[in-house]
Sequence to fold (232 residues):
Amino acid sequence: MSQPSPTLLRSPEHAASDLRHIWTITGPSGTGKSTVAEQLSQRLGLPYIEGDEYHPQANIDKMASGQPLTDADRWDWLISLREEAVRRLSSPEAGVSKAPSATAATPVAPAPMTSTSEPEVQPPRSPGVILTCSALKRKYRDVIRAAASTHPKISVHFIQLRADEAETLSRVRARKGHYMGEAMVASQFASLEDPDPDEQDCVDIEVSGKSAEQVVGEVLVKVKSASGTTER
Fold:
């Protein structure tokens, strides 16, 4: 049996703590996950992981041909997203994170050692990371949640973007150059599982009829309430 999820809205004591946050923007294709995540990343100054970039080529080819992914297709992808989110929370780097390139990097000669009495100043770690992931089923969300189980100072949140199937289909049809075609929309809605009552780390944001700026504004309210995060 799954354990109850930690609540999204935390007390002021938690908000002021040293918790680091994984803000997972979820929902079917076409609900605007990437658009919202990019704006959140810019507004909050947090690194952003684009989940679509981490699918192996076999998954991309399968979806491009209109075939839904199976659970087995998703496990390694979900684990890679969780591990990358944890890595980003431990790194001073910022920006959009994509899957590593297969091209080998050019070796860089090490800097010469210098003697100094000043202690090395470590750059601060990121207080949060923005992740896009459809996370359609509870068991998929549980894979991401495992980050909090193994890292007690990490808090995981899911912000599910909602729109009806007809509007989502219209959005996907208007989108150019993405491997996720309109044939996949129905299968995603068929797989979608609403959060259970004990998944208190999930909140819904209705996106139908709203601009991206309006949706981002609503998401920011949730983020600030839960973590005390401020815009830069």
